[in-house]
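Budget justification, computational time. The allocation requested in the original proposal was used primarily to generate structure tokens for proteins on the priority list. As evidence of use, we reproduce two of the resulting records. The first is shown immediately below.
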Amino acid sequence: MSENFLRTKRDMLKDIADISHHTQESWAEIMLRHSQFLKTEEDQKSFWNFILNPTDERGYVAPEFYKYHPENVVVQQFQQLTIPDEGDEKNQEITIKNTETRNGLTSYISVTQVV
């Protein structure tokens, strides 16, 4: 673990201990405020392993981390969907069109039915 993570962990635990009771909002605020300092992949892995195993149990198996590459995600432009008809034994086939737009690091997918 890096010095940066250990410092962030110490500060986070202090903030947690300083509050007598926590709400979802106070817990999330502490996590978000401190996780912003974890810039390297090593620090981020250490953070998630700490969150998933705060008591440092020996039997803990760390998850496998994958780096997300949005360029590798392919959304098909056209897809076929089968809609079951509850009142009839037949199923209805429809075609949908997916249109992807990006704004910074956020992708939006607009799904419309092709008539």
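The second record produced under the same allocation is shown here.
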Amino acid sequence: MKTRYSSLTLVKKNLVDKSERTLQEYNKTLARAKDALSVSLQELNTIEVPQSGTVSQIKASSTLFQFQRAQIEHNRQWVDFAQNQVNQAKEELKKEMIEYEKFKYLELEELKKLAKELQIAQAKELDEIALLTFKKRI
């Protein structure tokens, strides 16, 4: 049975679904960012410090360390950004769920009201039929 809230409930449900998909995408991005940070940290541990060699080798090693540290910092910022996106998406989903539940409740109350009105109308109709058949018997 359709009510005046049915279309609004459907729209809110679609918004909730969209928010859930967005949250899933942001969670995937966060997982990729964490993986990239983990790989960057592992790569930093694999870089060997030269114990001896030319100045150019030591400078190259130092540059490699600086690059890897910059990469780690970049990945940390990416993780922070992705975490913020996830948190914002969770808040948005929570807000959309509340709105959806409101309209779902209103629709349910409207359906209850319509069912009660239908029941009263049927009772009146049965009473009328009973009166008509009773009068015919007399």
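A brief technical remark on that second record: The CA atoms of residues 102 and 126 lie 36 Å apart.
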